[in-house]
Amino acid sequence: MTALIQMFSYHFMQRALIVGVLVSLCAALLGVSLVLKRYSMIGDGLSHVGFGALAVASALNLAPLAVAVPVVVLAAILLLRLRQSAAVKGDAAIAMISSSALAIGVISLSLSTGMNTEVSSYLFGSVLSLSRGDAVFSILLSLAVIALFVLFYPRIFAVTFDESFSRATGTKTELFNTLLAVLTAITVVLGMRMMGALLISSLIIFPALSAMRICRSFKAVVLTAACISVLCFLTGLLASYFLETPTGASIVVADLLAYGICRVAGRK
């Protein structure tokens, strides 16, 4: 208990705890729909776009989040349009946009100061990189994502399971697919601070897959995924502090262990 009190006496750990819990909730809620729609790798693609945007922002000495959020939101909408196109489908669209963004980011870095500490923290994740201003910005956006998901939960449920039927009943499926893509983009950018661009997609995929192993209804899967995501984040955060391991990697290992447990429990 003394060690925990000392751990959370640091301001950066307090910020990491609050923002991490909120982002974990956002990722789990959205991850269920993304996995069921077979579009789970959008997180990986958008994280690469986010890294490219952050690299450009760093080269131009601009505010990282202020640049990355709108750029990744636009990329998410573009991915959605390409996915619906007959010419480019699903994973091909993600690969095309993510690789292009990475190339732009690498060129921007090579023409500026190179791989500095801030950009490296976005690539691999770091709790130390979360400033007070970024924390406030992340908290507000996370709460907005959660509120919009709860508000439009029935519509998101409808377009997740049967998009054709939803369209036939008058639901604006394109609008809610766009909303899902935009909320995912915001969550990815916020999560990159903690997880890094290379690991953020695991925060979206693992809790949803784990919950699907032990639950059957959509609502139960969403609630269970949210609980698993927060629990794994807390476990990873504690492990990274006491074992001095990278935060993002520690959270992914906790998610992997949770998936293994749920997989075994789901067989019974």
What's the structural blueprint in terms of helices and strands?
Blueprint: H1 2-7, H2 11-36, H3 42-59, H4 64-84, H5 90-111, H6 117-124, H7 132-151, H8 153-161, H9 163-168, H10 173-195, H11 200-214, H12 218-243, H13 247-266
Task: Give structural notes.
Helix content is 82%, strand content 0%. It contains 13 helices and no strands.
Mean pLDDT: 83
In percent terms, what proportion of residues is strand?
under 5%
Residue ranges: pLDDT <50 for 5 or more in a row? none
Number of helices: 13
Form type: globular
The profile of the biggest β sheet is: none
Give the total of beta strands: 0
Structural class: mainly alpha
Radius of gyration: 18 Å
Order of helices and strands: HHHHHHHHHHHHH
Taking the alpha carbons of the first and last residues, their distance comes to 36 Å
How much helix is in the residues? Answer: over 70%
Key descriptive features of the protein:
268 residues; mainly alpha; 0% strand; single chain; 82% helix
Brief account:
This protein is mainly alpha-helical and 268 residues long. The protein is 82% helix and 0% strand.
